[in-house]
Amino acid sequence: MLEEVKSTNITWHAGDITREERERRNGYKSVVIWFTGLSGSGKSTLAHAVERALYDLGCHTFVLDGDNIRHGLNKNLGFSPADREENIRRIGEVAKLFTDAGIIAMTAFISPYRADRDKARAVAGDGRFIEVYVKCSVAVCEQRDVKGLYKKARAGLVPEFTGISAPYEEPLHAELIVDTAVEGVDECMARVLGVLRERGIIG
Amino acid sequence: MLEEVKSTNITWHAGDITREERERRNGYKSVVIWFTGLSGSGKSTLAHAVERALYDLGCHTFVLDGDNIRHGLNKNLGFSPADREENIRRIGEVAKLFTDAGIIAMTAFISPYRADRDKARAVAGDGRFIEVYVKCSVAVCEQRDVKGLYKKARAGLVPEFTGISAPYEEPLHAELIVDTAVEGVDECMARVLGVLRERGIIG
Question: What is the extent of the structural domain holding B35?
């Protein structure tokens, strides 16, 4: 890049826009908010609620979730342990790119393995990864069974289903734990915003 | 998603923010500007010049290039035809996500295969893909040889090097062709902005 610029016009390389420059203009810090938890725990609902609140505060935001990742970027991945790892790796890298662009990136995936989440944390960088454990017991998620997946999993029709036939590793050092069995979405959303304020991410 | 919301609070789903809502607030359309051309043609330099100009106009922008993709999202890909295809596929999908977030996404990759670029165009959607062919002869790129890669390729040290030992398929219907052998970066940048204005992407 630097040499390439030399070959044309040295002033051009100065055009590169850093995350810091974007953050000064935006008035907030761009971070990854990583929602993790069982299927049906409410990750995506909460992420979209937080996004709306941040958007209305003037922030630029984006939610990465199954709807926009599984049928696009990660459509060539299945649900084996290796594919789940690659799934989360790509999501972590894309979330990081979004923060480089000055966006508050939220991810809403089960992301059951601690090691995979910790890699995403390392990619995001120091102080830029807010892990939110959307806690909810298998019993309650199964009672909700919003997509009918628990029923299918119990019938053996969905192999390697997290919480039933595949493990979920709880976060050890999440920045926030919300319990959607007892807290409403409003309350959970307010608690996420509280963490962002405490950490000086938003004003 | 919809059912998940039903299980908690139906008003939450309304929180989803569409690209159209973002565009109304931003005052510009989010598109992919896809720079394609040989190594050393000036794609990345031009993309960063366009980014600076758009940023100074108040747009939210991001450049995807080798610097931020090859060592991150696509670090598990090499340079075989299959890996090049997957490389460009992922970049096309990520660029689309950026436009969904209201960002003008620029990509600066050789992207030598027409079919791969056309897939990225299809992913971006109608009227949201501006293909800029950064034209420059192999002779001129080789003379610049900013990274010393042509020299290595001629010595047989870089297999499948586009323009030397691997094909480059010129765009048939690029929205813009710039010739960096005769036009300066200023001039090329102004022509890209001209195309964006003509198409009502920026005001």
Answer: 28-137+168-198
Under 8 Å between Cβ of A59 and B23: no
pTM (two decimals): 0.92
- CA–CA min distance A45, chain B (Å): 6
**High-pLDDT (> 70) share of chain B, %:** 93
* CATH at residue A160: 3.40.50.300
Q: Is residue B187 part of a domain?
A: yes
- Asked whether residue A60 is domain-assigned, the answer is yes
In this predicted model, what pLDDT tens digit does every residue of B104-120 receive, in sequence order?
A: 999 999 999 999 999 99
Residues from chain A that touch B12, judged by Cβ atoms under 8 A, are: 45, 48-49, 185
Q: Are A134 and A163 in contact (CB under 8 A)?
A: no
- Domain membership of residue A4 (yes or no) is no
pLDDT for A187-196, tens place per residue?
Answer: 999 999 999 9
pLDDT score at B78: 87
Phi-psi region for residue B117, left (φ > 0), alpha (ψ -120 to 50) or beta?
alpha
Catalytic residues of B: 111
Domain count, chain B: 1
* CB-CB under 8 Å, A64 with B3: no
pLDDT over 70 (residue A8): no
The string of pLDDT tens digits covering residues B4-17 is 333 333 333 445 89
Contacts of A185 (CB under 8 A, 6+ apart): A42, A45, A46, A49, B8, B9, B12
Nearest-CA residue of chain B relative to A89? B73
Residues of chain B contacting A9 with CB distance shorter than 8 Å: 184-186
Chain B CB contacts of A67 under 8 Å are 1
Contact B94 A96 (CB under 8 A): no
Q: How far does the CA of residue B195 sit from the closest CA of chain A (Å)?
A: 20
